[in-house]
Design goal:
3 helices, alpha+beta, 15% strand, two-stranded antiparallel sheet
Length: 119
Amino acid sequence: MTAEEWIAEGERRFGKDRQAWFFVCPSCGHVASVMDWKAAGAPQGAVAFSCVGRWTGATQDIGKKNGGPCNYAGGGLIGLNPVTVTDGDRVHRLFEFAEPKTHSEDLSPVGQGDQPDAD
């Protein structure tokens, strides 16, 4: 999908505030918001690319679908990121958007709930 299509889908699901967009880690299933990555101190490029657990001290190995978070990095040898977004000549492999209902009951910070961070 194109970057424009990806942005339109995020806005359709979560609204225009990208800090409130949620993604699901393909390794552990942890749901995080852009705000979660930011609160964890992750760089902007980590959002929807590597599990937020890499910045919260998570020690869970990749591949355990128990809600995480884990230490999965999207740029490693095991490329699990399922969404391909093209932006001109750049290609990004990203996490899938979480379903809006997945996170509606928990809006607490990372380590206390399920949200992503940064944009």
